[in-house]
Amino acid sequence: MNEKLQNVQWGEYRIGDLFEKLNLKFKKSKFDKINDISKVRTSEFNIPLVNAKFGDNGIMYYGRKNDFETASMTIDIVNDGAISTGSVYPQPQATGVLYNAYLIKPLFDVNNHMLYFLSTTIQKSIKEKFGYENKAGWEKVKKEFIQLPTKNGEIDFEFIDAYISELEEERISELSAYLTVSGLDNYELSSEEKEALENLNFVEWESYNLERIFGKSTRGKRLKSDDRIAGSLPFVTAGEADTGISDFIGNDVEVFSKNTITIDMFGSAKYRNYNYGGDDHIAVVHTEKIKSESAIFVTSAIHKSSYNGQFNYGRNFYAKDADALNIMLPTKNNEIDFSYMELLISAVQKLVIKDVVLYADNKIEATKKIVESN
Fold it and tell me: Can you list the domains of the chain with their CATH numbers?
């Protein structure tokens, strides 16, 4: 595929010549954030709404179909936010606009593959040019240029469609192989896992001090960007992008073990299933001795306790704060119920992965039928 990209002819196109900005509105006379939107998609709140969101395809909230004007086969551009400004996401489904983002629509017919390609190309063009102090408004963005495959002086949509199709097939095959090797292709719940889900509302909870469970937390050491040597070790810093991995280094630094938890300067907790290094804005909770499912559960408990606004640039979260942190965990016979945590997380993983496995299986089967028919 890389060879195909190298051999294709590229042309430069002005964004404003290819897209129009949609002015989608909230239909009611007054907007009530508490009652008119939901962070969870439900049968009532089923319309994705774009706003200043980094990740999750730019969607943080959902609205009612009757409350928001919508459009499909559009591209979402985030125009505000310290991290999210200039992020671009394809929105093939019916989508509305909340705030700090807008939708643009191609002035020509596209399918999903083309929409994904165009979104990636636009982000490559604008992401580094805009930021919190220079918002990515349409009047600026439409003047920027993107590079697209060209044939006979026209956009080569046939190449774009074929390239994304081939890329999708390759990734689906890799995903299927990974699911099989990791054992995640088994999404059938055991009787014990079903029981764990059914008994969730009846679980007894107790507050536990983090240091008493796992011992003292440790802290990474500062390593300036200019001092980093390229390598293969993930280096964790504060932030949500790329789960806080800012670089891959080859420096001689302390290596923290997999199956541990990091808490950054803002109190955001993340589970690590790989060895890594960390800077001085990272506290490491040493959960190596418990099973991965329990460690994932503990990560969520920590995040709920530490990531609710009390830590920020003015007051950073440090290892000493981790040692003082109390978290709520399931308890049985006056002891932490690690067995229940393992069963519950295992059940949740299977529920989450089920749609992924079925999607991969369906795509592979569809590809086989196409190949056989030809």
Answer: 8-154 (3.90.220.20), 204-336 (3.90.220.20)
